[in-house]
Amino acid sequence: MTLHAALHVTRETFALDVDLTIEPGEVVALLGPNGAGKTTALRALAGLLVSDSTIRLGESTWDDLPAERRPIGVVFQDYLLFAHMTALDNVAFGLRARGTRKADANAVAARWLDQVGLAEFAGAKPRTLSGGQAQRVALARALATDPELLLLDEPLAALDASTRLRVRSELGRHLRDYPGHTLLVTHDPLDAMVLADRLVILENGRVVQHGTPREVVRQPRTDYVAHLVGLNFYRGTADGTEIHLDEGGALTVAEPVSGPVHVVFPPSAVSLYPEKPVGSPRNTWPATVAGIEQHAHTTRVELDGTPTVLADITTATVAELRLQPGDPLWVSLKATEIHTYPR
Amino acid sequence: MLPALIGLAFLLVPLAGLLAKAPWATLPSQLFSPEVGQALQLSLVCASLATVICLLFGVPLAWLLARGDVPGRGFLRALVTVPLVLPPVVGGVALLLVLGRRGLVGQYLDQWFGVSLPFTTTGVVLAEAFVAMPFLVISVEGALRAADPRFEEAAATLGASRWLTFRRVTLPSVMPGVVAGTVLCWARALGEFGATITFAGNFPGKTTTMPLAVYLALETDPDAAIVLSIVLLLVSVGVLAGLRDRWIGGAT
């Protein structure tokens, strides 16, 4: 059964208005910047805040149900494991609260701990667990009651980088096994891309884009999404192979198009020259260096010009050009590297 | 440094003096006299009952003040702390005015149920509870306010009712605060004098608790007063120390 949710939450300075559908077995990621309303949406789904939302799953509606009567499981950002209980008691808590006998609840909880690879930590108190272990106990606790809807609130945010990689892939495995509906709230595009079947991008309480990770990565529709996926992004109006950008400047593309379009190209497609390059079918325009940022294997250069642009260049090029903020340069970009799609 | 030492001396010297002046020779016979035994027993029973009453009503009250959705919570909180700063004698007078035989509530208790509270052992318990309850409430409320309410939300998402959440999640997490509050409350009740003598009077075996017995003995038999004081001192210190090791000091 598909889960339909129309979430409406009004606060003094903020309004959330989000429609979501989640299929059984599907993982939907709610991705957005801080303050976009992601956690508010999660809390509305969980019944942890008062809202005039409608949530429907098959025949049943959840609108009037308090949190404790909704068939949900939540993994909180900092897990919120009960400190005075053992890992086993934490996992068994939901079953006990729903009236399962202690022995049965413990048996189910032990099975879940085993499933997340923590069987030997059943008697451990949460403060003795590592971040990754605590996250797995939190996941087991949320799943032990067989919820219809699993809500994950930034489940990897509290982990350090190396743990994160491993826990992310494990989480992915458990989510694939889980037959219910999953909503993952995150501001990390990588978590969303790796774990989710579908992305819903939230900005200022509204959905600005949704689609599969592949669609979103290839065709971002807002500056935020373009920034997340690391693309140069412009709005423009096409006239054949010539595209006039809204912010000024023009680009030549390989395939003729028409009407209002989005224009994207990766920073790695941009080349920088000290002099105006001659004799090539390329887009070239003058720009000045506004900022330089060292990434793992490349250097990202932010350039002011018409239009402004991000360029990823090799460290060798940086050395060759002796880049300094304020330096004048020429930007060059092949027409075939530019991707356009209708607005 | 010097002011600190003076402060320390000021607190400790009187206690040392008490021990120095103790009539060690007659101490055993004094200690096991029926009067002391009676007063000590009455004190322990009344203070413990008063503490139970404070727990039964004080913990829910603390929860209301910390978490409840009541208007004027700050004002309520201030009201609750009034008995803390009120001279206990005034508390005793107030209790008499309300629960006395002609009191606002007391007259109906007397008419309808034939119950009269002043000058009874029940009166002692009530007077002690009145004076001691704020200690418990303040302590538990502080612990509750420091406890992260999101754990209660986590329990709710796991299907726990509010009562179950309180019992299994909130209460254990504020247990050190509850224990500390209980100890304070009990110690305050044990030492209560002003409200007790005003509301419950001074009837040996019925309302003469240890502090009252000390006061009484000081006029007639100073040695007995010293012995009683030492017993009170030891009981208080003993309980505080015992609970401190177990609950307040280290990890639970």
From TrEMBL, chain A:
Protein name per UniProt: ABC transporter ATP-binding protein
Family annotation (PANTHER family): SPERMIDINE/PUTRESCINE IMPORT ATP-BINDING PROTEIN POTA, SPERMIDINE_PUTRESCINE IMPORT ATP-BINDING PROTEIN POTA
Pfam families: ABC_tran, TOBE
Keywords: ATP-binding, Molybdenum, Nucleotide-binding, Transport
Superkingdom classification of source: Bacteria
Domain Mop stretches: 278-342
Organism from which the protein derives: Lentzea tibetensis
Molecular function via GO: ATP binding; ATP hydrolysis activity
Residue span(s) of domain ABC transporter: 1-229
